[in-house]
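User: I'm writing a short methods note and want a consistent example. For Strictosidine synthase conserved region domain-containing protein, I'll paste the sequence; you return only the structure tokens, no commentary, since I'll be parsing the reply automatically.
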Amino acid sequence: MALLIVFLLFSAFPSLIFSIDIPIILPTKNVTVTGFTKLQLPVASTGSLAFDLLNEGPYTGTTDGRILKYISLIKSFQNFAYTSVNRTNAFCDGTTDIDKSPICGFPTGLGYNYISQKLYACDVAIGLTDVGPFGGLATTLVPTKNGVPYKLLLGLDVSTDGTVYFTDASTRYGPKEVNQSILTGDATGRLLKYDPITKNVTILLSKLAGAVGVASNFDASFLLVSEFTGRRIQKYWLKGEKAGTSEIFLTFPGNPNKIKRNQDGDFWIALNIPTNNSGVAPQGVKVSPCGQILATVDLSKEYNDNRRITVVQEQTGKLYVAGLNITFVGQYNIVKV
Ligand SMILES: *[C@@H]1O[C@H](CO)[C@@H](O)[C@H](O)[C@H]1NC(C)=O
Ligand SMILES: *[C@@H]1O[C@H](CO)[C@@H](O)[C@H](O)[C@H]1NC(C)=O
Ligand SMILES: *[C@@H]1O[C@H](CO)[C@@H](O)[C@H](O)[C@H]1NC(C)=O
Ligand SMILES: *[C@@H]1O[C@H](CO)[C@@H](O)[C@H](O)[C@H]1NC(C)=O
Ligand SMILES: *[C@@H]1O[C@H](CO)[C@@H](O)[C@H](O)[C@H]1NC(C)=O
Ligand SMILES: *[C@@H]1O[C@H](CO)[C@@H](O)[C@H](O)[C@H]1NC(C)=O
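Assistant:
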């Protein structure tokens, strides 16, 4: 039933739809990762990650509607927050059933506001939410009920000026219709902006082919938005001469998923490249703000059972990897070559 899983994990059909030959750009530098550790979760992740002001975390959303925080002192995840007012532990704990999401919640995208110290989450069933530094029940900022106004909220980022950017992967297909979305090459996804002062939502870009991830740059002058089915990332200008316009930033021989900015201002993209035996080769791709591929990291040794990854995030010298329906967050040490 959990077809949302398929959307984030699936990459065979898009190669049929978009069978253009895209050159693979080789990195100028390679990054080696060592010391793989599984940070075990009590329930499957939704493939979302964030860290807070004190570099604590990771935080991750779970398929049973929780947001968990990793406490390094005790080396385990603890309950931090939840998105749905009607959620009960008895009904929800441990579920991977998307049908329960209207009651339990299903937080898919996380982003931290370093000024207000609020953690923002988009949830496919609940809408756009935020929660303070002590967690608990998140406040619903923009509700979505029965897929109105949003069908498939997946990507989220909070820019350094506090504006919240998020994506609706499709305006036609919900979490249980993801196959149709991919098979039809659906391009009805949108890039959205939430202004926390006016509480207004604005549409920045529409007609996106599977808008699953978004990240702003360090001075909030542009956004990157990934198109899973479209196999590319677009750059949307927020400031300057080109403000309000977009251009192709990168194209890929596979499906890009979430994008996360690191502390140097570069970006990490989770990429799943389809392989011959209908599996995938998961990679972390590091790019500069100009679109230069700085490094690629092959993650297929640790993610070798055709699991697709949805997010790769660099934080204080470590690389964290998560995927939908995966019951751990992977942690690596980064060795710069
Ligand atoms: C990085 O790795 C790729 C693939 O293994 C290789 O082709 C490329 O030459 C390497 N780049 C550098 C700068 O070492
Ligand atoms: C919570 O449950 C109540 C009672 O069934 C319902 O009226 C309300 O709409 C629900 N709230 C949300 C946000 O779904
Ligand atoms: C969706 O696609 C997956 C992967 O090909 C397949 O296993 C599943 O049966 C499909 N679901 C539907 C409802 O077509
Ligand atoms: C908020 O959005 C509404 C409807 O789109 C518009 O009428 C209003 O002027 C906006 N307010 C601000 C402060 O932008
Ligand atoms: C994939 O299959 C094609 C055709 O069978 C073959 O030419 C190619 O070498 C294969 N690629 C890999 C990476 O195995
Ligand atoms: C998600 O994981 C659970 C537990 O490992 C498994 O039973 C279920 O089939 C998975 N769902 C999908 C769609 O992969």
